[in-house]
């Protein structure tokens, strides 16, 4: 009986200690209206002690039904004050074209943009890099993993990796519907090697969660979106966590639609990405801090 009571006491003390030190993360709104325009799907990286926003897309600032793509670049050291490093210049052959949801990584002391989207009625299988955000060098115009969107891109073991993704026949009818679970790598962004045609995880696009952790690459969820067999506004999401050795997944379907973002209107001078006199919107910025809570 003494042993039992002692065990109960230890367990109660452990539970009390655990409850008394629960990690709590609180978000702080840094600004309701960042200088850059309202957008989604933009690239976001940290490089040279700054945060960077690369491209993106949004509803037409003029209120039309079309969407507007961006290839401007912004940076900040605090999330409050943003500097436009390069302006929005659509259809400029000397730099990567407007896009969202591409691959964005930092590798070999450069920022990289790996692929893009099909919204211009073609895919963007190009790879670009920059040391300052203003001048970009194209590593290749046509990477062999080519005709896809919503792939995951990460850095691991001295290489850039591209995995998964899907096609969008709605935007590019000439390319058949396909979902990928292949894996590619490159040590320079120009020359790519297919590591495997079919990884252990199921084919998927929308892999927004991909990280390197404990010397492994990890995929966090994924799904498919907006194809003839999976109509616009419908998505199938795969929940689960996978690493280089698959550890399982669960699937479910959900109905939904692309969420719209709202923010305070801003002037053309401030946003620097719409025609003169066109009202635009700015995005909000928030940050989080870890604190400890006692109960």
Tell me, rounded to a whole number, the average pLDDT. Answer: 78
State the major sheet: 4 strands, antiparallel
Tell me the strand percentage band.
35-45%
Structural class: mainly beta
Number of helices: 2
Shape estimate: globular
- Could you list the spans in which at least 5 consecutive residues all have pLDDT below 50? 1-12, 232-241, 244-270, 274-280, 291-295
Strand adjacency order, main sheet: 2-3-4-5
Oligomer: single chain
| Residues in helix, % | under 10%
H/E element sequence: HEEEEEEEEEEEEEEEEEEHEE
Question: Could you give the distance between the termini?
Answer: 31 Å
- Beta strands, count: 20
Rg from C-alpha positions? 22 Å
What can you see in these coordinates?
This protein has 295 residues and is mainly beta. The chain is built from two helices and 20 strands. The chain is 7% helix and 45% strand. Strands 2-3-4-5 form a four-stranded antiparallel sheet, with no helix packed on it. The chain has a four-stranded antiparallel sheet with strand order 6-7-8-9, with no helix packed on it. A hairpin with a 2-residue loop joins strand 15 and strand 16. The longest helix is centred in the first third of the chain and has 18 residues, at 2-19. The two termini are 31 Å apart.
Quick synopsis:
The chain is mainly β and 295 residues long.
């Amino acid at each position: 009986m003494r042993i039992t009571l002692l065990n109960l006491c230890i367990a109660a003390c452990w539970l009390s200690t655990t409850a008394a030190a629960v990690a709590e993360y609180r978000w702080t709104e840094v600004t309701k209206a960042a200088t850059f325009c309202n957008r989604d799907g933009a690239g976001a990286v940290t490089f040279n002690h700054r945060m960077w926003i690369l491209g993106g897309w949004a509803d037409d600032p003029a209120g039309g039904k079309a969407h507007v793509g961006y290839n401007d670049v912004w940076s900040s050291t605090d999330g409050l004050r943003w500097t436009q490093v390069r302006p929005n210049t659509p259809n400029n052959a000397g730099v990567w074209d407007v896009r969202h949801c591409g691959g964005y990584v930092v590798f070999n002391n450069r920022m990289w943009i790996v692929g893009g989207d099909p919204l211009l009625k073609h895919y963007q299988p190009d790879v670009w890099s920059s040391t300052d955000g203003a001048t970009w060098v194209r590593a290749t115009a046509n990477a062999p993993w080519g005709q896809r969107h919503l792939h995951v891109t990460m850095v691991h073991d001295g290489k850039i990796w591209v995995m998964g993704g899907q096609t969008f026949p709605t935007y590019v009818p000439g390319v058949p519907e396909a979902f990928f679970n292949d894996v590619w790598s490159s040590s320079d962004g120009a020359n790519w090697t297919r590591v495997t045609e079919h990884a252990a995880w199921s084919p998927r696009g929308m892999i927004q969660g991909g990280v390197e952790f404990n010397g492994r690459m990890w995929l966090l969820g994924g799904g498919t979106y907006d194809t003839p067999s999976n109509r616009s506004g419908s998505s199938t999401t795969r929940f689960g966590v996978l690493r280089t050795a698959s550890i399982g997944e669960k699937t479910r379907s959900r109905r939904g639609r692309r969420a719209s973002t709202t923010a305070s209107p801003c002037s053309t001078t401030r946003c620097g990405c719409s025609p003169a006199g066109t009202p635009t919107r700015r995005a909000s910025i928030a940050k989080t801090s870890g604190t400890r809570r006692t109960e």
